[in-house]
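Researcher: Going back to the complex we discussed earlier. I've cleaned up the inputs and rechecked each line, so this should be the final set. Can you rerun the prediction on the complete assembly and write out the structure?
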Amino acid sequence: MEQSESTLTGSFAVDRIDVHPTHTYNGYRLRPGKPFPFGATFVPGGVNFSVFSRSATSCTLVLFEKGASQPLVEIPFPDEFRIGNVFTMVVFDIGYENIEYGYKMDGPWDPQRGHRYNKDKVLLDPYAKLVAGRDVWGREPDWNDIYQYRGRFVYDDFDWQGDRPLEIPIEDLVIYETHVRGFTHHPASGVKHPGTYAAIREKIPYLKDLGVNAIELLPIFEFDEFDGSRVLPETGERVYNYWGYSTVAYFAPKAGFAATGKYGMQVDELKTLILELHRNGIEVILDVVFNHTAEGNEHGPYISFKGLDNQTYYMLTPEGYYFNFSGTGNTLNCNNPIVRNMVLDCLRYWAAEYHIDGFRFDLAAILGRDPSGAPLPNPPLLETLAYDPILGKCKLIAEAWDAGGLYQVGSFPAYGRWAEWNGKYRDDMRKFLKGEEGVVGAAAQRLQGSPDLYEWGGRGATASINFFTAHDGFTLMDLVSYNGKHNEANGEHNNDGSNDNDSWNCGWEGQTDDFWINALRRQQIKNAMLMLMVSQGVPMFVMGDEIGRTQYGNNNAYCHDTELSWLDWTLVQKNPDLFRFVKQLVAFRKAHPALRNTTHFRNADYLGTGYPDISWHGTQAWSADWSASSRVLAFLLDGRHARGGAAQDNFIYVILNMHWDGLDFELPGLPPGLQWHVFANTGASSPDDIWEPGSEPPLADQHKLYLSGRSSAILVGR
Amino acid sequence: MEINVKPGEQVTVVELVGDIDGSTAPAVQAQILPLAAPGARIVLDMTRVPYMSSAGLRMLLASYRQITSKGGRIVLVGLSEEIQDTMSVTGFLNFFVHCATLDEGLKAVEA
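Model: Rerun complete. Updated structure for the full complex:
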């Protein structure tokens, strides 16, 4: 039977019946709130507040007029508004834009049992979506202010115009790790709002030209750059918490990274950036820090968790002190169910509300520890994240170690979802690059997507995020320019930062005018990038590696908001050959599915083509030199086996000569009618070092190729 | 906040004077929405608006939606560099036609 339209549609003219206050306090009209969702949420006529504390005896809502030093009003939650361990309340008729809110919690002071309640401290809501107090980067705060990081309300009505996370298959990603401020704050960046989300948007054409399709941002959850900030007596430089690995608010984007932070519009600015990146085919991965917070240990400040429910949120020793698996004073108690839910809520919020494509978890091994610090065989948090419906297509990437000595590269609990920063890739490939003995076997594993680490668990090559460099450690230029770290500028007498860099300076420590040393360094940079882009797994490099960015040997530049950390855009003009080389490598990787397998090679000719999927070679074809003194490795991919035979590709031959001597390499024979073409040869000078994919010239001699010392080549058989 | 509605034969000009924020945006919206008749032509003269908050931007976009859903047009005029910048980096500017002067705005809204 057909129904008339009016019975199907029609509007609801009846008002909700819960929009009327039931209580008043000092002229403020109140009503019991709803416990879900946590945080501050707009409801008709007012704002719903909901905050958890298991052991607080009472809670007070503290409202400030924007920026005011003293509260506008303090409204105690009536006890009849509490549900379980959640304090809830609706406050009607409060201004959305000019109000800042916090809580005061009363409860026991009993540090041995984990309680550190202090009813005088104004505390930030852990679910605050917008935080004021550090609105403009580097503007010194008023440390006498009783409320440093102030929760605000946020509009969640951004118009995404049809956008959603891109869901690029992880094997197709090329990840560019970058810092929001460092990427564009250099005076040469030429952007209107240096150091901001908005400025990244201006640089999208650069990223597209380079060809990367994912940017991984160092922490952007609200943090305090003044955390640990001081003026170094030796140099007079003010150092900051520049990297931001010390979270103040997990649900709020860093205001100081927004050109509009002074107006509190960072949410819209960041979403606009993400929308624009997505429109250009670039995913956004966030570096998230759930292993610790900015509250430090028992000497650190009260910001939020410490005053709300210290015993729940932190891993504590039996005596009530803070465990320090993060190396920063405290450890978030991630496998407590309350904290686990908060982490889940947080990631869901960023995935759903900001369309974030993936997350990289800082010191993720901590997320697998139980509340006493012991590693769990089946960590509930990691399992929950892996199976969560909203995170179902997000990339989950673990930094699979922590500062407490738990090293899980290859053994991180994966649930078929988690990928890892492959620290062994970095270490082995750096050694191979500098010509160390005894690493060709390890290098062969790394080039294949580390089957020795990941095949046993059925995790496939895409479990491996491959990298030579990341924010933490040398840049690629410094990796080939310094034998040792030079962290004097950090003010710790060069005692901070890793000593295991596996770097080689090519004959002189630091910058030099020597032509041959500089030429060798460029060649080594190209060798590294070439190896990275032909490795199975997911390549990542740090901003500026494509144009030779240096930190002058500093391998731990976490505190420098100076040219040491910023990307110098004049390098684009100074090193066009490097940029071109990396760009063509990225394009080559995109053009060749044989380089982007999801599973590991079988080392067999399972399709009966006459060639195995991968075969290993040396100066003689079909005969690799696996001896300890070998510094030479070559491999042949038969493109007919690409993606298990599901994709068609050319033959690809990669020759890596990390010996200092030039060598002749016999080339494996191709099926009749095919010829070897040279795509890249790092021993040749620009522009003959690389070609546009598809336009490679055929080799004059189809039987052998001479490669100069410390050089590498890619040939295409077609 | 001062709101001057100047009805014309084809085009209504609304002149706004003062900051548009959470406290003034509802009043502005209350003045604009009744003008959103089918096919309406509206020029919003913001030459004397020094500041617009998040709520102000949302009011603008909501009004834009109301007007265009009925086949009408709205053009913004005289945005300060600061407001234009803010609207640009937060994505709001993409939705609007905006002009430097009232004369240009009047032409644009009729075009």
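Model: Worth noting: Residues 1-6 of chain A have pLDDT under 50 and may be disordered.
Researcher: Good, that matches what I expected from the previous run.
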